[in-house]
Design brief:
It is found in: Cell membrane. Helix content is 75%, strand content 0%. The chain contains 15 helices and no strands. Helix 2 crosses helix 14 and helix 6 crosses helix 8. The two termini are 53 Å apart. The relative contact order is 0.13.
Length: 302
């Protein structure tokens, strides 16, 4: 009887096992093509960055010679020293860190408060203000360079870091408000209502309750703002002239290496300066990679 029962169980399980074997594999033709596309995309992105880093250790003949993709004959940090001292990349990097740090801080402060109000409170003109912020996303920067220059000059802030910071904040707010408004709408309202019932003010509810809950979204948009402002070139060129070279940002310093070299271009020094500008942003992205992904997907998962 026991043997018969066991055989019956085995026979009953056999169709289910065969059915599982007949199910199509999730990694079919389209899965293979997606993996190939990801590999190609990775090579296209990582390749230039890796070559830039290796070219900073080469000499001019090695870079413009017959084998520009070959490894350098010797790994010398001389070009990094020239970029740091002679091209003043160190000073420009410190200027950029100061400008981007201050502008990102105030962008996140003002943007998060505006987004919270637009997402949580209903009042006359709510949608009009929101769409006014969103319309800033469709306005190219280069179309406003001339009037922007005169506005900043009339404020007495031309050739100053304060002028650059104010402009960075203005141009970063539209995307910040757009992103965080949608994120704040996904957060539960019960916690904020409970805090209000316990006597918490609107300000305390925002900073002590809602901001910690919105941490993934805040980190994501902070990183995006840092990347965008760090790589900005047009605005510093317009707002910081050649007469205040000591206030230049890193993008201006890198461009100056190429434009002032003439026929004696220092390509290793240029690529060393580029590497100095790339490495901090890579570190920031690698450190906060998980927070960025969780912030971008939090609304979809909700």
């Amino acid at each position: 009887m026991m043997a018969t029962h066991t055989d019956t169980v085995r026979v009953a399980k056999a169709p289910a096992a065969s059915t599982r074997r007949r199910q199509p594999s999730p990694t079919g033709v389209f899965g293979a093509l997606s993996h190939v596309a990801l590999i190609v995309w990775t090579i296209l992105v990582v390749g230039p960055i890796l070559w830039t880093f290796l070219a900073s250790f080469k000499t001019n003949p090695e870079i413009v010679g017959d084998a520009p993709l070959a490894l350098p004959d010797s790994f010398s940090w001389a070009s990094w020293g020239r970029a740091w001292e002679k091209a003043h990349i160190g000073r420009y990097m410190l200027n950029t860190i100061f400008v981007v740090g201050v502008s990102t801080l105030f962008t996140m402060l003002f943007g998060s408060m505006a987004a919270y109000v637009l997402a949580r409170y209903r009042f006359f003109g709510n949608r009009a203000i929101y769409y006014l912020f969103v319309s800033g996303l469709s306005f190219p920067v280069f179309l406003a360079l001339v009037p922007l220059f005169f506005v900043v000059r009339n404020l007495g802030l031309i050739d100053t870091h304060a002028g650059v910071i104010l402009v960075y904040i203005a141009y970063s707010l539209p995307f910040t408000v757009f992103f965080l408004t949608a994120f704040f709408k996904t957060l539960p309202t019960s916690v904020a209502e409970a805090a209000m019932m316990d006597g918490a003010s609107h300000t305390r509810t925002f900073f002590q309750i809602m901001v910690p809950m919105a941490k993934p979204g805040l980190i994501s948009i902070t990183i995006f703002n840092i990347l965008g402002q760090w790589n900005q070139y047009l605005l510093p060129i317009v707002l910081l002239s050649g007469g205040v070279e000591d206030k230049w940002l890193i993008t201006q310093g890198i461009a100056n290496i190429n434009t002032t070299a003439g026929y004696e271009a220092d390509w290793p020094g240029l690529f060393a300066a580029l590497s100095m500008a790339i490495i901090p942003m890579l570190i920031v992205y690698i450190v906060f990679q998980r927070q960025i992904q969780s912030g971008l997907t939090a609304g979809a998962v909700k």
